[in-house]
Fold this protein.
Amino acid sequence: MLDTIRKRFGLLGRNISYSFSKGYFTDKFNNNKLFEGCTYDNFDIPEITAFPEIIKNTPELKGMNVTIPYKEVVIPYLDKLSKIATEIGAVNTIKFTKKGKLKGYNTDYYGFMKSLEPLLQLHHKKALILGTGGASKGVAYALKELGILYTFVSREAKEGIIDYDRINATTFDNYQIIINSTPVGTSPNSDAFPLIPYEYFTDKHIAYDLIYNPAETQFLKKAAAKGAQTKNGQDMLVFQAEKAWRIWNK
């Protein structure tokens, strides 16, 4: 019998009925006889404290993805982290080892890096990351790997973080890549957008939104209206999902 029989995978998160991962992996399994017997389910829990029950009640689990809001708070429940996940401080992939241990990885940074790289030109030297949650940490790591300087933006200024009120024309002169790593603008709240001065976008800018539903957020629409190159999170998700699949099966 095939070694992939009766393998179960899933997504850990809250309010994840919209999830990309379930549809993506279900299609992957259905379209390849090698993956017969593999399933992918959403594990939608109200608090991270319910995570141990999932592990206890689903012994056939081989791997999980992790999404908002658990990318950081899941870490204490894991036995081990990869070196990169340790450095990033956020996990979006969990491998169940043959010894029954849980090891955390981060494939977000890889997905983001692979999807951003083709857009980069010589003048793209600095990036603003809107948001400071778990997703933003993978973005920051990827930018560091690409040699791009970055600054975080949050509602409150802290050390190394500016607030939204500080963003002005000079900011846009200095930062050529603007990345939305917040959930603002996600369907069904697709009329929402980060509060930045969109009038300063130019054709020298990249506007990148980690959101993929809707395909064009208000953030991207407003940036595109000023000539900016835009990119949503769809390709990032595909790249990170395939990287997770390789980790689960190595």
The two ends are 19 Å apart (CA to CA).
